[in-house]
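Exercise 7.
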Amino acid sequence: MMERRKPELELRRKPELELRRKPELLAPAGDMERLEAAVRYGADAVYLGGKDYGMRAAPGNFTREELKRAVELCHSSGVRVHVTCNTLPRNSELRGLPGFLRYCDEIGVDGLIISDLGVLSLAREHAPNVELHVSTQTGIVNYAAAKACYELGARRVVLAREVPLSEIREIRENVPAELELEAFVHGSMCVSFSGRCLLSNYMAGRDANRGLCAQPCRWEYFLTEKKRPGEHFTIAEQGEGTYIMNSNDLCMIEHIPEMAEAGICSLKIEGRAKSAYYTACVTAAYRRAIDFFFEHPGERLPAGILEETGKISHREYSTGFYFGGEPGETRDRGQYIREYQVAAVCAGREGEYVALSQRNRFFRGCTVDVLQPGGTFTGELTEIYNEDWEPIESAPHAEMKVYWKTDLPVEEGAYLRVKT
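Solution. The predicted structure, written as tokens, is:
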């Protein structure tokens, strides 16, 4: 079995915080490209899924060989790997599970994220060297349930998104110190309780509890009257319809100290089905935010860090249930807010030129916002050329190669963004 390298979690005493571990930043990885983005942009740990048993069937996920490569890549950078095994498997699916669990143990996976009690029992038997993490799908909302999970072998519980910080503090005070608490810090929220939803199954024949959610909560709905079936009435007073189950997105980037003080040791970013750019941008923003809050206690988060969360596609942000009340629904729009888009990705440097791979159309003279692991900066595309070194006014073709003459320190893999 390969040696596992785990970064030390820092212990620092700050005036307004109890002595807590600096929270782990846990980023999503839907495939190898997204995993590499998470590692490059500052994740302490990643969570990902194999081809089976995970709650996200849409992304590419990882073959067994890719899982092994992922563990090797992450451990070489001191990053932990948590593998999702959090579907509710049927009898027929259980037959292959012991082999999968043994393989995860063999290649050095750090944690298994599990929601089913039977799977938890099998994991204890077949993956004895891997930490067991109880999934948010289990719906842990109190300390009695958290302690019961600990007694069954869990090292960590991923709390239900419905639990406010005041109750998380109480859970932390009433469970063994060895039991870690993980909670979501950013991303899409599910309208159902702890993600246990049957709506997709009923309406689209796709079981959300087996990774196939069609997200019908995001669809547009109208009201009809029994005797007038052909007439649709909007549920809102104005507009083209209403999205009555369309939850706002979660964003807790300004409240990391409160989450740490409540006893949360791992801050989880939602989004295994989202793009590598999303993974890079959100991971980078939360990496900077965590480091800032623990290096500058009591200070407000700089605007530049906060603004990064607005440079991805998202629904209106909220703080979820963390401060009580309801997270809110985006009732008047079904579309994401898109203030920026990726124009190109840096493919390397050739002398005084930066090679770009186009992602969305951009024009000569436009201002680009560059995101790379070392930070962000802006530049102007004053001189751009096609692959035949001919001056061009725009880059209209998908993934076309473009040369940008600049002395800015743009790194390979950097994202160039333009304001929409």
